[in-house]
Amino acid sequence: MNVYWEALVLVTEPATLGAILIASLLGITLGAIPGLTAVMGVALLIPITFFMDPVPAIASIASLAAMAIFAGDIPGTLLRIPGTPASAAYVEDGYAMTKAGKPERALGLSMVSACVGGVMGVIALMVAAPLLARFATNFSSVEYFWLALLGLSCAAIIAAGSALKGIVSLLFGLWVATIGIDAVAGQPRFTFGSIELMGGVSFIPAMIGMFALPEVLRNLTARQPRIATPTMGPILAGLGATLRKRWRNLLRGGAVGSLVGALPGAGADIAAWVAYAIARRRSATPEAFGKGHDEGLIEAGAANNAALSSAWVPTLVFGIPGDSITAIVIGVLYLKGLEPGPIIFVKSPELVYAILFAFLLANLLLIPLGWAVIRMARHLLRIPPAYFAPVVLACCIVGSFAINNTSYGVLTMLAFGVVGWIFEENRIPIAPAILGIVLGGMLEFNFVTSMLKSRGDLAIFVSRPVAAALALIVLMIWVLPIMRAMRSRRKESP
Q1: Which of 115, 132, 133, 358 has the fewest Cβ atoms nearer than 10 Å?
Q2: How far apart are CA 303 and CA 311, in angstroms?
Q3: DSSP structural state of residue 223
Q4: Cα angle: 207, vertex 210, 216; to 5 degrees
C-alpha cells in the first residue's frame, strides 16, 4: 500500500500535474492538425524532458500520445484526412456522418470510445505488468534473445504493410545498431575512422530525424488545398443512448486493443484494423460499414487508445517497445537512469505506478480537453501545416544539439531525416528500423552471452521451456507468411 501512496504523491505534485496538463494541450492540438502526428510530437518533446524529473518526463510523453491519438480522429472525421494510421480504419464512417450533417456525433463517439478504451488499456497495464514482471525475473539471456527477436519479427512481418519492405527497414535498423565499438571484442565497426561514430549512433537524434523531419519536408512540398470545415452542433447530445446500445462494441474494442497492443511491435494501428474487422463480422448490418455506421467507429476507436496504453506492458516488463512511441520512451527511460525490465518493478516500484496513474489521469482528461478541441476544431483545421514547419525544424535542431551540446547530434538528425523521408516516399515503414536500432544491441548482447555460456552450443536456445515456446512463436511468424504465399501462388498457377 505504501508503494501506491508514494506513487499517488508523485503524480499529484504540482510539477507532474502541470507537465500532464501542458503535454495534453500540446498533444491534442498537434493531433488535430493534419500532417502533425503523435509520434512526431513525442519525438519533439524529448529534448524538453531532459530538464524534468523521471515521473513528469514520462507522464508528459504518455499524456501527449494519448491526446494526439484521439485528436487524429478530428481531421479524419471532418476532412477525410486521418491524423494517425490507426484513425484510417474508421475514417470512412466518420466522414460519412459529417456529410450527413452529424460531425459532432462522430467526434463525440470517438472521444468517449477513446476514453473508455484508454482506461481499459491502463487497467490491463496495471494488472498484467506486475504479474509478468514477477514471472520475468527468472528469465535468462536466452529468453531475452527470443523476446527481442519476437519484437523485431512482429514489427517487420506483422505490423508492416509489405513484409519485404518491413524486413528492409528492419535490416537497416540492425545495421545502424552495429555501428560503434563492439561491446564484446572491442573492435570498431562501420566507424570509418570517426571518433564520434565509435560511441555508436545516438538514438534520440536518429529518432527525431526519422519521425519529425519527413513531416517537415512533406508539409513544405505538398500542396495544401483550401479547407472548408462543417459547422458543429452539441457534442454530447444523444451519446448516452448510443453508447448504452453499443456497449458490447465499446468493451470488445477495449479488450481487443489491450490484447493486440501488448504484442511487441504491434501497436494501435493493427489493433484498430483488427477491432474494425471484428465489429463488421459480428454486426447484424455489415453492409452499412463505411457509410456512417457507428459500430465500427466505436469499437475501433476504443481499441485505438487501449492499444496505446497496453503497448507499455512489453516496454516496462521486458524492455521491448510495443510501438514507435514506446521505442522513444525506452530511450528516455535510459536517459533518466531507469533500465526497463522486470528489475525496475523491484528497484523503483513507486515510479512505475506513478507512471501508470499518470496514464490513467491523461485518459480521463480526454473528455474535457477533447470537448474543448472539438469546439475549436474548425479554427485549427484552417491553419496550413506548412506554417508549423519552421517551428518543428527549429525544435528538431535544438533537441538534437542538446543531447551532447555538439553539432554531431544535429548532423545525425539531418542524415536520418533524409533516410526517413526516402523511406516514406517509397512506402517503407519506419517503425521496424527504429525497433532495430533499439533492440539490435539487446539482441546481439544476449546472443553472444548465451553462446559464451554454452561454449558455442546452439541447443541452449531451446533448452528451457519458455525459450522453446518463444522460439516456436518466432518460427511461426516467419514461416506462415511464406507458406501462405506459396499456397496462393499454387492456386494462381494453371
Answers
A1: 132
A2: 12
A3: -
A4: 120
Answer yes or no: is 69 within a domain.
yes
Query: What is the Cα–Cα distance from 298 to 11, expressed in whole angstroms?
Result: 30
φ/ψ of residue 416, rounded to 5: -75, -25
Domain assignment present for residue 283? The answer is yes
Q: What does the pLDDT average to over 25-29?
A: 83
Span 9-18, pLDDT tens digits: 888 888 888 8
**Beta bridge partners of residue 180, listed in sequence order:** 189
Distance of CA 93 to the CA centre of its chain: 24
The structural domain count of the chain equals: 1
| Residue 481 covered by a domain | no
**Interatomic CA distance for residues 315 and 312, integer angstroms:** 5
Q: What's the pLDDT score for residue 421?
A: 87
Which domain covers residue 136, as residue numbers? 3-463
The C-alpha atoms of residue 48 and residue 334 are separated, in whole angstroms, by 15
CA distance 105 to 234: 8
Q: Measure CA 441 to chain center.
A: 21
pTM as predicted: 0.73
Residue 319 placed within a domain: yes
Interhelix angle 54-71/38-49, nearest 10 degrees: 160
- Residues 301 and 293: their CA atoms lie apart, in Å, by 13
DSSP of 94-131: HHHHHHTT-HHHHHHHHHHHHHHHHHHHHHHHHHHHHH
Of 309, 372, 388, 301, nearest to 77 by C-alpha is 301
What is the three-state SS of 424-469? Answer: HHCCCCCHHHHHHHHHHHHHHHHHHHHHHHHCCCHHHHHCCHHHHH
Predicted confidence (pLDDT) per residue in 137-181, tens digit: 777 888 888 888 887 777 666 555 677 888 888 899 899 988 988
Longest dimension (CA), the chain: 70
Q: Tell me, what DSSP letter sits at residue 188?
A: E
Which residues are registered as beta bridge partners of 181? 188
- Cα angle: 279, vertex 282, 283; to 5 degrees: 80
